[in-house]
Specification:
Blueprint (H helix, E strand, L loop, with lengths): L3 E6 L1 H18 L5 H7 L5 H13 L1 H14 L3 H7 L2 H4 L8 E5 L8 E9 L8 E7 L5 E5 L9 E4 L3 E7 L11 H8 L5 H10 L6 E7 L5 E6 L4 E5 L4 E3 L17 H15 L5 H5 L21 E11 L2 E7 L9 E4 L2 E5 L2
Parallel strand pairs: 1-4
Antiparallel strand pairs: 2-3, 2-11, 3-12, 4-5, 5-6, 6-7, 7-8, 8-9, 9-10, 12-13, 13-14, 14-15
Helix pairs in contact: 1-4, 3-4, 4-5, 7-8
């Protein structure tokens, strides 16, 4: 079950509502996990204090959202903040994902971003699609996890942005702003230029890969950022991206490439070379028994499963998109226009 929920109010109030929703999943699994214990053990590390001070300085609304999230979860504020820094602290954070990027062409009048959201199998049934309207900010609709701020999965905003995020397993963490805070803040940006400048002009801690498009822009962007580099590439041909850096500027950056990420990247590129008829075919692929693109095995090598899939079509008339909770070509669970729900198959 992947419910569609509505969140409204101040940043603190929105965070509190997200926390209340995520409380069940957090208590059922997360608080009992070794990962939670490991991440929160860094709460007294000077780097954690520095990251918190940077968030409060540069993104006070996101900090208020984290405070509200902790209140709704009924958990210690610093512990919740640390959990939202997990990928900055721990290279093997369980945030996987695969994205397929199709740029606008003569035969296709829109950019297309298709994305498998891969995460903890134990969170299956505890996540949601949330439409979030924070006061005086553009609304957005996003996949959300328990105990996490929005913006590190897939999302569409009322300002016309479409974003999909992939984990990068950086070996070197800088003294900067947590990656999930940066991508959360992108959801309030009006266009691609402001989104890119936000990443380039702020100190970064960990790393992510972003697929970014805007309904009023001719560009489809692939962005790989780490603590010391931010590579922005315009996508001119159909592409695929798993969970390691592949840009010329970043490919040799110290990172961990798991067997799953490596094979999903190779398999996606192979399928593109074979000219698949639909980008969602790549995301539904289970050709490799050990390292499939669509991941549902209990013994997944990275302990990640596909929890939802999004297919976003971005044109100057808006963003039409579908969300699936089963492998394509299943019927979409939700159909949306911009941030609004058009139809549901629940």
């Amino acid at each position: 079950m992947l419910p569609f929920i509505e969140i409204k109010g101040s940043a603190h109030e929105a965070g509190r509502q997200l926390g209340e929703f995520g409380r069940a999943g957090t208590r059922a699994f997360l608080l009992k996990s070794e990962d939670w214990a490991y991440i929160t053990s860094f709460k007294n590390d000077p780097r954690a204090t520095q990251m918190q001070a940077l968030v409060q300085q540069h993104f006070p609304l996101v900090w208020e959202e984290i405070q509200g999230l902790a209140k709704g979860l009924e958990l210690d504020e610093t512990d919740v903040f640390m959990w939202n820094c997990r990928g900055d602290i721990w290279a093997m954070s369980k945030d996987g994902c695969t994205t397929v990027q199709y740029p606008q062409t003569t035969g296709q009048p829109y950019h297309r971003i298709c994305h498998n959201e891969d995460g903890y199998p134990e969170f299956n049934g505890y996540c949601a699609i949330a439409r979030v309207q924070i006061d005086n900010q553009p609304a957005f609709t996003s996949f959300i996890y328990p105990a996490s701020i929005p913006g590190h999965t897939f999302a569409v905003t009322d300002s016309g942005l479409a974003m999909a995020v992939n984990n990068l397993r950086e070996r070197h963490v800088g003294a900067g702003i947590p990656r999930m805070v940066l991508t959360c803040a992108i959801l309030a940006q009006p266009d691609l230029e402001h989104a890119v400048k936000l990443l380039q002009n702020h100190p970064r801690a960990g790393g992510f890969h972003l697929s970014l498009a805007h309904q009023n822009s001719p560009d489809l962007l692939s962005i790989e950022f780490f603590s010391s580099i931010c590579s922005v590439k315009k996508i001119s041909a159909n592409s695929v991206h798993a969970n390691h850096a592949i840009h010329a500027e970043t490919v040799n950056y110290p990172q961990i490439i798991t067997g799953s990420s490596g094979w999903r990247q190779l398999r996606g590129q192979q399928m593109l070379a074979e000219t698949v008829t639909h980008p969602m075919e790549i995301l539904a692929d289970t050709n490799h028994a050990t390292f499939p693109v669509y991941r549902k095995q209990a013994n997944d090598s990275d302990h990640e499963n596909t929890l939802a899939t999004a297919d976003m079509q971005i044109s100057d008339s808006g963003i039409e998109w579908q969300i699936y909770d089963a492998a394509w070509p299943a019927k979409p669970l939700y159909q949306l226009k911009n941030t609004s729900l058009v139809s549901s198959n629940i």
